[in-house]
Amino acid sequence: MAASALYKAxxxxxxxxxxYEEKARLxxxxxxxxxxxxxxxxxxxxxxxxAVCPSARFYDFSPRRVAQAxxxxxxxxxxxxxxxxxxxxSQCFSCLRCPRGNNPGGIITIMREVAVNNGxxxxxxxxxxxxxxxxxxxSTGTQVxxxxxxxDAFPDWGPEVKDVSDNLDLWxxxxxxxxxxxxxxxxxxxxxTLVELYLIWxxxxxxxxxxxxxxxxxxxxxxxxxxxxxxEGVER
Amino acid sequence: MTIPVEVLLTKKKTFERxxxxxxxxxxxxxxxxxxEGEWVVQxxxxxxxxxxxxxxxxxKVQMGHLWHHKSCGQCGHIPxxxxxxFWVMRKLGLDYHDPRDxxxxxxxxxxxxxxxxxxxxxxxxxxxxxxxxxxxxxxxxHCGTSYGHYKEVREELIxxxxxxxxxxxxxxxxxxxxxxPEEIVHYSEWFYAMRxxxxxxxxxSFEGIAVTxxxxxxxxxxxxxxxxxxxxxxxxxxxAIVTGVAQALGAExxxxxxxxxxxxxxxxxxxxxxxFTRSFATRRKIEVxxxxxxxxxxxxxxxxxxxxxxxxxxxxxxxxxxxxxPVMSEAQFAALAMGAHPYKVxxxxxxxxxxxxxxxxxxxxxxxxxxxxxxxxKRLENxxxxxxxxxxxxx
Lengths: 236, 395
Ligand code: SF4
Ligand code: SF4
Prior knowledge:
Helix content of chain A: 40-55%
Largest interface: A-B, 79 and 95 residues
Bound molecules: iron/sulfur cluster
Helix content of chain B: 40-55%
Oligomer: heterodimer
CATH class of the largest domain in chain A: Mainly Alpha
CATH architecture of the largest domain in chain A: Orthogonal Bundle
Strand order of the largest sheet of chain B: 9-8-10-11
Distance between the termini of chain B: 65 Å
Number of helices of chain A: 14
Structural class of chain B: alpha/beta
Structural class of chain A: mainly alpha
């Protein structure tokens, strides 16, 4: 049994085990990211990153363990972390305080990308309930829009959310900056700009990343984008 | 043995920079890549203010003629934030451009879901920079995360020629060139640079207003070198941003022990795992501030931080936690100091924690202000006017 089993039982999150070779392949993908050498210089195991880490306070989570596993090339533990830990990180980058110059939060960003790209159970689970946000950002270029402030989505934010949604059209028109009158996007985005954004999603493979975690969403987005490109007479 | 905290604190009072241990200056690399024809550098043009940064290097903050890189969250659910930035700039008589060819940085989604990659993120950033450069206006970034992320992108592009090549090819398809601004500037740096001009136009006294400051992680932790640090503020030990503005306006800035902690936003947590966000924001930030500093208002300078610290208090109140303090950006605070309308400009009705006691302490009759705003709403409703204009808000 791998030493990693001492940290957490692999069956807790309910993901399947895979052969060692598959875990090694996933870790190789993490290491192949061009940012990886900028993010890891070995680890003193000093724990400074843990002391400043918000997620470590509330979860069984530790940026030190992530940096350490990566530095030791512990393939088993890295796989376990990709299934259990990485989505707990707040991506605040407080851990950049690392005296070794590491960026544990950045390593986690890369591990998440690999988890998404390879349709890992943890990524599918983490992104459940998140699809309307991905739809918004990819299709409109603004992640948060006024029409998302529905009281049923934010019951814990108090009665003011209902006030906003009840008065949305009027309150948006009561904003003096002209670009802010829209209710569907954060601001008014020009059609040409959206076309440019769609081309970026296509060309960089960012759109295809969605496939492994949410096939339905991928299909809808692809259709929306292709339609728009066609309308604007833009060839890919 | 007890730890001699007081002795340690005195020793750490001021941050002495060791000139031998200066990290590389990114400007040199940015210029070198321009010389090699890799990209075009958009230079600071026109009057600017020089501000000190973490390692003592000066940073140029252009005063006017700015291209406002808006924030999706500010525009989406804290619109008084962006409105106040524009309003203050107009009051200072500085021209600006509020573009429609801007996308968000998309980093909120990236840090939340990882459904993107380095090339896409860099292409999004440089597309926006190119759009700014085409207008001749210099970019001013409203969101702390956009600012931090764009600095990350700059680092990655400087280090990796293959990434530059990939992004260049994509931009060419869009008919855009590779553009890097000479400085990446956050709006709060502009407020810091202009704090004395702002204070000179102050019409409401903030004497006796107690403030706590939450510095945004992505402002000063991500690519730390060009964040503002001033030897005169916290002895150069913490970023001077926000605090410098509040002090210039005569407010009393009070410290608290968890100032370095993040707000709890978490990017994905605020959207789909808010139990964490609420707990962290209230237990590690708001409650500590209340206990140790008892502020009248929490000031911060980022979309996510305003959202988290403001919205997390409602549920905590139901659990009888020690919360209940208004949260806003220093842009809204400065606008109020300059006489801005609390609803027409600062749009405080979009906020959740009760800000009315603060307004009273500032000498603002919020009931009357609300009635004035409601009159405008009536005019909008009746069809007398289609939108509230800049002229209306100062009428
Ligand atoms: S980025 Fe993640 S690992 Fe680093 S301090 Fe923040 S929550 Fe912890
Ligand atoms: S702060 Fe850096 S060196 Fe210390 S444990 Fe964390 S990653 Fe390792």
